[in-house]
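#onboarding

Welcome to the new folks! Below is a worked example of what a typical request in this channel looks like: someone posts a single protein sequence, and someone else replies with the predicted structure as tokens. Don't worry about understanding the tokens yet, we'll cover that in week two.

Example request:
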Amino acid sequence: MLTVIPFHTVLDEATNSTVANVIAGGGVIAIPTESSYALAASPFHTDALRALARAKGRPDGKPILVLIGAVDQVRMLAATVPPAADLLIRSFWPGPLTLVLPAQSTLSPLLTANTGTIGIRLPAYPLLRQLLVRVGPLTGTSANRSGQSSFCTAHEVSAELGEAVQILLDAGSTPGGKPSTVLDARTPVRVIREGAVSRAALSDVLHDAGYALSP
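Example response:
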């Protein structure tokens, strides 16, 4: 049964405890981000990643990005942080920039799709960051069936995915807009998907520090 919990200005201990228990048990929840709703599960729990794939009807072979609550959680997921990535973290996080980094070897191929990399983002939504600090990193794939548009209201998530998730953190309507920019921060640094952070903004920051952005 889906449990809907209001999620607006305060992260209370009851919400934190409920979410933590579901995540630890391999459950899937729906969370608001600064753009749309996302499906969240533990990136370290194989059964949770399988449940996530079933919820989305997601084909095998697609990596899943992870949301973190603080920069120090990067090391839980990434084997190394290249200097260019460190620069971009200081310049654009928290915000809509997903950095693709070398993955820890212990991460499931369900998460990395055998790429040897992991996409990580520190979201700009303060309340979500508080939750992620308390329960740990969570997946941040969009809360929709594979091939559908992203959902920006809790009602849409409940109607489409209510049977597949245990908890829906209801923040009402989210702003929508462009998805995060996805950037491979290894050498050569390259944009995989241009989104809310422009290629020009990335290029300026990298160029000023002596790094090049691959065409």
